Structure formats: C-alpha cells, structure tokens
Amino acid sequence: MSDLLRLATAGSVDDGKSTLVGRLLYDTKSVLADTLDAVHRASADRGLSTPDLSLLVDGLRSEREQGITIDVAYRYFATPKRSFVLADTPGHVQYTRNTVTGASTAQLAVLLVDARRGVVEQTRRHAAVLALLGVPQLVLAVNKIDLVDYDEVTFNRIAKEFTAHAVSLGYAEENVLEIPVSALVGDNVVERSANTPWYAGPTLLEHLENVPVEPDPHDAPFRFPVQYVIRPRTAEYLDYRGYAGLVAAGTVQVGDEIVVLPSGIRSTVTKIDTADGPLDEAAAGQSVTLLLADDVDISRGDLIAVASDQPEVTDDFDATLCWLSEKPLKPGARVLVKHGARTVQAVVTELRARFDEQKLSSVDSPGSLALNEIGRVALRTAEPVPLDDYSNSRRTGAFLVIDASDGSTLAAGLVGAPLPVLDGVESCTEGGVTAAPDTHALVSPGP
Amino acid sequence: MTTALDTLGRLESEAIHIFREVAGEFDRPVILFSGGKDSTLLLHLAIKAFWPAPVPFPLLHVDTGHNFDEVIEFRDRVVAQHGLRLEVAKVQDWIDDGRLEERPDGTRNPLQTVPLLDSITAHKFDAVFGGGRRDEERARAKERIFSLRTAFGQWEPKRQRPELWNLYNGRHRPGEHVRVFPLSNWTELDVWNYIAREGVELPSIYYAHEREVFLRDGMWLAEGPWGTARDGETLLRKTVRYRTVGDGSCTGAVESDAADIETVIAEVAASRLTERGATRADDRLSEAAMEDRKREGYF
Fold first, then answer.
1. Does B269 touch chain A (CB under 8 A)?
2. Chain A, nearest residue to B23 by Cα
3. Residues A314 and A344 sit within 8 Å (Cβ to Cβ)
4. Looking at chain B, which residue has its C-alpha nearest residue A84?
5. In degrees, to the nearest 5, what angle opens at C-alpha A100 toward C-alphas A332 and A323?
C-alpha cells in the first residue's frame, strides 16, 4: 500500500471546508506552536472565544479580508501510516478551475455538505467534475452534524442520495463513503465521536489512512514521454545517449520491445539507468533514463511506448475541455496543445456540446465556451500526436490548451472523456432532488 | 513485481521530472544557490536528473555579505567539486554604488530582491530554480511549481496558471521569467529524511556546535560583521545549531545538542515551531510579510 495519498477537497465556503481542513491539521498535530499562537491571537482580535481553525488555511491577505479562499492551496500532514498532500480547492469562486486543478492529481476527493441542507446542486456538479477527471475515490463529509442534533435519519438520507448520484456518475459503491462530521467540534474527523453511536464507519482520518489507492497505473500499457536527451560527451561516457523521462503508465523491463511515436521506429530497451545505478524494471511514477539498442533519432516530445499495445497516432480527435480562461473559446480558435513533453499547434475545429451547469445537461453546438464551462470539441493538430483515451490513462490522455499569444493556460483537455458521464447527471437529478427540501423538512424527515 | 515508490522516492522523482522539463523548455535556467540546506538539496537533485551528464545550468548566489564562514567555504567547495559555474551578486556592490541603501536595522535579507532581479536581467535568465516549499508559510501554500514573474520580477496572484496533472506551462513573454520550485511538495521533515538517506553533505552550522550568541526578540543571534550585542544584551557561549541559513543579522540559532543527522531528524520531528517562525526575524515583521515580499519579487 502506498504511503502517500494525494487528496482534494471541494465544497463551498459556507459548508465549513476551511474549518474541516484546519481541524485535520490541528488534530493530527500538524500545526506548529507559533502558527497556532498566531491563530489564537487573530481569533481573539476578532472577538472569538475559541480559535477559528479556518485561519490556519486562509492564506492570502486579500482572502483573509474577504473571509473567502480564491485559489487552490496545498497542505501537508502526516500520520505514522501515511503522508498526505491535500489540494484545498475553494468552492464558489471559479469552482471548475479550482476543482479541475485539485482533482487532476488527486487519488481521493472529500466533498462537503452542510447536514442542514444536504446534497445541493453544487455538490452534484462537483461530483460530476471529479468523475470526469477520474478521481478514483469519493468521500462525502456531512458536516455540521451537530446542528441537526446528530440525527441518524438525516445522515442516512443524505448518504443514500449521494451514493446514488455517485453511482450514476460511474462510481462503484465501494469507492464512495459518507461520514457524519462536525469540523467545528471535531466529531469523526480524527477522533471518533460519542455523539454518533449509530455510525459504525471510520473517521475521516482513519479512512484517509486506510483507503486502498493505486497511485500510478502499473497495469496499463507502458508509456514514456521523452523529456530530455542525455548526452554527456565526456571521455568516460563518450557514446552515451539516454532518453530521460518519467514513466507515465505501465512498466518497462530491460529487453522490452518498444516503439517511438509518432515516427513508428522500433527498438529494444538495453538499459534503464538512474544516478543510483541501473534497474531491471521501472514503473509508473519513476524518473529514469532509457538506453536503446539502435541509434535512432529521438528527441524531446517523442513518446516511447510498448510495441505490443500502442496509442493511436492522430492529428484529428475529440476531447473534453474544461475552459479556464476569461477569454471564451470560439470555433476555429488557433491554440497550442501540450501533451506529454510535446507542444503542437492546433485548431479547435468544432464545438460539439457544452455541459450546462444550471440544468446539469448538455447543449449541442454551442457558439462558445466561457470561463468554468465544460464542453466537448473536435481538434486538429499540425502534427500527429500519440493519444490514449483519458478514461484509460489520466497521464497520456491529458493535455493543456495554451494561448499562443500570451502563453496563458486556457483549458484542461481530456482525450475522449465523453460528456455522457455528465449527461447521466440529468436523469439522476430528476428525482426531485433539485426541488431541495427546506431545512426544516430535512431536520424532521418524512412520515 | 514492482514495489511502489515510497514518499521520498516519489518526491525525488517529481523533482527530477521538473528539472528535466525546465532543461527542455527554457533557454537560460539558473539555480539559486546559497549553500543552505534547501539549495544544496536542489543541486543534489539536479545532479541526479542529468547524470551522467553535468548539470546544464549555472548557479547564482545573492550574497548579503552577512555570511557564516562555514557556509561560504562549503559553497565554494561544492561548486569546485562538481565543476559548476557560480555567479555571485553581492548586495555590498549595490550599496557601494548607491543602487541600494543599508536599512536602519542593518538587516540585508530584504535587500536581496534588487540584486536578484538585476542579475536575472543582466544574464537573461528565463527560469530561476528556488528551494521554496509550500509547507513553509501560508502565502507559499498557493505558490505554483512554475511561478510566472513579470518583467519587474513581481508575482501577481491573478496571473498564476492552474497547474494540471504534471503538465507544466513555462511559456513567458520576453523579459518575464519563471520561478521554479522543485521542492514544493516537500516538508521540512522530508528534506531532512532525504538528506539522511542520500548522505547529502551540509554546512557544519546545521549541526550542534558551540558559539557566542546573544538573545534578541526571543532569538539567539551570533555576532559577526553585521554587529554584536547591544546594551542590555549579553554574549553567552551556548551549544546551538541553525535550522535555516540566511543573513546572519536576522537568522537565529536554536539551542540544540543535535550533532548528527539522526538527532536533527528526531528534533525536527518533535519541534513545535515552524522553521521560519523560529529563526527568521524578517518573516515575523507582519502577518502578511511573505506575501508582500513575494509581490516585490523576493524568492
């Protein structure tokens, strides 16, 4: 089992996300004395009687002044079992941009809801984005459970509704877990709560420590974007020519037959080198240098793949874009696509569909794609690129869309990654969830 | 069977990937190198990233002049050992020709920004590696691995790009540059554990030694070219070590008997103070101190 878990949090400000993250840091003793003193002082300055744990994580002064978080922040904490890298993604401002960023590397996401309000539209949208980005595990923290008097029925109803939604997005039930918590009081975050005797599951931290995650796709076909060609030209290494990169997927062994794409030239791996000495085998996540049997022409941007299971090499493909720029996308736009270590020119030839955030459905042939919108497009590239479907490979199925004029990142691109996953949302929200029951009804449930 | 990388292996692999991306995409990268532990670790990782070829970047030290002798000796020895090229931008030169003025408090850490930016411009550096980590301080928690700086070296929160997967966008306009932080995801404890595992040599002042120090603002400061104890402050001989190495006038030592790497790790693991809060006066100026200095182009 991996000793490192990358996770993302998502939820709106009002759900108490900063307090939950602050609570995780505080209760795992990841907050050091001087930082804590500063929080105690700042809380007292504001006339609060107990420390405001959200102050531990609200970083930029402009955010503290407004009491909101506006950008993804990274937190680090560790227990004897695991180390955690937490991408704390703000909910209501630019939620797609932030959620997509946090989710792109996450193995698990923690979504928050307010127990008084239950699953709301934004929860469903967040879950849909997490599903689209392929985050393998979901946790729903049903927060402020103290404010519904630790009511089991309320929790069960929220849990059932969320699991149903996640399943409709393609999650297996065993990869979804709901936990009743109070970030403010600390119930079931790190310490098991005496207030929820009806809850038999793990605390949030116990789950984070024990959830099985496969950090890298070892079972997938071997993929290796060449980042840099190492040629020492020293007396000792006169003829050394190594292809440096990070294994994006699968494993490679000395003797494996590989193909270099897009050229299609074949060769055999003769050595897997590192500064610590050669390896017999390298797996996804490892930075290594490959040496090949033949003196072939390989440069930065080429992809080395296992010969027996190659990606498609194409200059014409469909993709899903999460649009992250204030400049809207129009059909015919000329952009740059960065895939692996290769950047190519591209044209967005067609906008096929746009995911409608409000209706949680898709609209065909939209005229544009605006900030925080998700759409399906057709792309043509100036040179052929070797592509995997995103649903098969989160590494080699992903790309950036870059503005050629000012260099800004315009969109997160997912090869294939069909919108139908999102379309599924519509049917599952028809069941009356959008007509959200009011707070009172939730606290005193039905017959 | 393949064994999964452990945390340190994963952090190392990520840092090597970042070094190679920069080598592939930029024309004139440089590594900020002070001889301190984070920059020594950066250099160690760079050497591993390009082995058996030499590191394809020069090093840059923005020298406050308020140095510890042991660190400068170490810096020069490491540079010679690996056959690297070191550029030194001396704050003193900027003070001498009037481009900078000494501060009333004598601290020179904040004065590093101008020599740094001038050097970046003069050498046309387009990527500048720094040892910053996100766990150091709240304003750093939102820092990107590739952090875009304007032609004035400024960090504008709103122009920072979303970082997706491990695809880094290093594009920049002429005159702009990108600060690159390969240690972003490391914690202080990770750094020390890795230094122990790899046997990375550090300047001796990171380990317990005897030194004449005096107490000011709750920190043990050493005497040096930057000054000594004032009235009411007493020089004492104590066993101390340093957790960070910066301008000697504002870098405090901590009382410690940790004389080797194992005891340092035990001490760091048990410590209840962040390394910046404990030993860097410049970070304690205000709650938003780091955010302000980053906007000005500080590393």
1. no
2. A228
3. no
4. B7
5. 20
Q: Does pLDDT of B154 surpass 50?
A: yes
Close Cβ partners of A411 (under 8 Å, ≥ 6 residues apart): A321, A322, A323, A324, A325, A329, A400, A401
Which of A62-66, A133-137, A180-184, B82-86 comes out lowest in average pLDDT?
Answer: A62-66
Of A5-19, A288-302, B73-87, the least confident = A5-19
Q: At residue A385, what are phi and psi to the nearest 5 degrees?
A: -125, 145
Q: Do A240 and B173 touch (CB under 8 A)?
A: no
Query: Does residue A17 carry a pLDDT above 60?
Result: yes
Question: Are A74 and B184 inside 8 Å of each other by CB?
Answer: yes
| A281/B164 Cβ within 8 A | no
Q: Which chain B positions have a beta carbon within 8 Å of A225's beta carbon? A: none
Rounded to the nearest angstrom, the minimum Cα separation between B21 and chain A is 6
pLDDT, mean of residues A74-97? 82
Is B189 within 8 Å of chain A by CB? yes
Q: Do B185 and A74 touch (CB under 8 A)?
A: yes
pLDDT at A441: 27
Q: What is the pLDDT of residue A339?
A: 97
pLDDT(A90) > 50: yes
**Crossing angle of helices B188-198 and B261-270, rounded to 10°:** 160
- Whether chain B has a CB inside 8 Å of the CB on A394: the answer is yes
B287–A402 C-beta distance less than 8 A: no
pLDDT for residue A175 is more than 90: yes
The CA distance from A5 to the nearest CA of chain B, in Å, is 9
Higher pLDDT, B272 or B44: B44
Side chain identity at residue A74, one-letter code:
Y
* Interchain pair B161, A228: CB under 8 A: no
> Which two structure tokens, joined as six digits, stand for B17?
């990937």
Q: Which residues from A are below 8 Å from B187, CB to CB? A: 76, 78, 83
Question: A61 vs B53: CB contact, 8 Å cut-off?
Answer: no
| C-beta separation of B21 from B168 below 8 A | yes
d(CA B1, CA A283): 10
The pLDDT score that the predictor gives to residue B234 is: 87
| Residues A311, A387 contacting (CB under 8 angstroms) | yes
Which residue in A has a C-alpha nearest to residue B145's C-alpha? A74
ipTM of the complex: 0.88
**How many CB pairs (< 8 A) connect A and B?**
172
pLDDT in tens, B3-17: 568 889 999 999 999
* Per-residue pLDDT band at A35 (split at 50, 70, 90): low
∠ CA A432-A433-A435 to the nearest 5 degrees? 70
What pLDDT score does A10 carry?
A: 85
Residue ranges, comma separated, of all CATH 3.40.50.620 domains in chain B are 4-190+288-296
Separation between Cα atoms, residue B298 and residue B293, nearest integer Å: 5
B37 min Cα distance to partner chain A (Å): 20
pLDDT band at residue B296 under the 50/70/90 scheme: low
Please report the pLDDT score of residue B169 as a whole number. 95
Identify which of B16, B169, B277 has the shortest CB distance to residue A287.
B16
**What pLDDT sits at residue B298?**
52
What are the φ/ψ torsions at residue B179 (nearest 5 degrees)?
-85, 135
A85 touches chain B (CB under 8 A): yes
Q: Which CATH superfamily is domain B4-190+288-296 in?
A: HUPs (3.40.50.620)
Q: Among B60, B179, B87, which residue's Cα sits nearest to residue B128?
A: B179
Q: How far is A290 from chain B (nearest CA, A)?
A: 12
| CA–CA min distance B232, chain A (Å) | 26
Mean pLDDT, chain A, as a whole number? 85
